[in-house]
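Human: We require from you a protein record containing the residue sequence and its fold in token form, and nothing else.

Assistant:
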Amino acid sequence: MGEKKLTNKFNFSERASQTFNNPYREHETQTEPPPRVSFSANLTQWEISDAYQQDFEAQQREKNKEKQKIPSKKEEEKIKKKNLPSEYQGNDLSQVAVAAKILERMVIQNSYDEIAQDFKYWEDNSDEFRHQEGTLLPLWRFAHDEMKKLAVTSICWNPYYKDMFVVSYGSYNFTKQPQGVISCYSLKNASFPEYSFSANYGIMCIDVHQSSPYLIVAGCYDGSVLVYDLRDQRGLPVYYSSALVKHADPVWQTKWQKDDLDGNANFVTISSDGRVSHWYIMKSELTCTDVMQLRIPGAVAEGPDGTQLLTLGSGTAIDFHPKQEQMFLIGTEEGRIHKCLLTYSSQFLETYDAHHMAVYRIQWNPYHPKIFISCSADWSIKIWDHMLKEPLFTFDLRSTVGDVEWAPYSSTVFAAVTTDGKAHVYDLNVNKYAALCSQAIVQKKENKVDTYKLQQGVPYPSGGR
């Protein structure tokens, strides 16, 4: 055998080779830049809290789903058998409710067809023989059994649905205060209210939001403020004032204002406790700030320790200027009218010694920015120019004037109601000294008319007693 050849591990030779290099290639593409949008928002503590709360609720729902056991086929069949009758019954009731409502509208339309025809086309032929004298034709009468022993304290037309108005019920017998009721009636159904809400105390005033007609604010006899939402089917107030910030006396009037810069709804209230309060509806609460206190100049009372205390007047009416949003008028129980500004609340801009008794209503003229009207318990109605200290016109109605209002379709027409059950309609363009119509609208002597409203765009009034 030959010997095995051993390789030398240290015998290494270096070899080199050169390969062909490929040429470089460049490829470019150009696209349109993606669109850009600038977004900005204000972040508040309650929004962060709401976001965390929603996330926590979502996590809890997922945990509850995991805990639920998957039922067997037998259990599913039993559940279906139990639920079948109730499901069918619920569906049938919902379908019958819609059909019943349509049928009710048809029956009422047929029943009140003559009234609807009179409302559109009625003309009194005897007006040709009367010289500057007119009459009122009663049309619908809205009544419900639950409100028989209650008084109508306020009426407000819905700004969006022209056939719907809201009525508040309470009592002027302050020794016996029943529960209050808010009812929404429609001219399409005079026999039953469309919506109805109840409160623990009598409702003394209401107002409907101009841009959100489903929001209704109500002032109560105990000084509390309630906000209802017609979309809420529970029938409970969605916002209500707490005991710390509510008024100490009855709230006599409330007025919605335009939403602030953050989009929060707000309104102003006036009460007998001498406070004018501005309320804001936040995410989940109702906050309040006092705009003004109705101090009586020169009236000072002594406290138990001899200190001098300022006496506050009792506010009864309020109205805001149609053009200048910050300017408003205040009527008091002492008979004075104050002109004020929301941004200048330290003192009154002007004080008018208007009446000898309580002022029940004030309203700016919707067409003339300098003119406003007032009525009082001293039997008088006065028309004012807010630049003058003396009234332009004074009308004596020989009874307590409960309410007065300008017509929304004319700058010279206004109407008033008195506690003797009469309605008075004036037109300054026709007669500056006497009413065109004075007619009794209440038959019983023990009843009196307290409130009166004219509808926007339609020449018919509504009154309550």
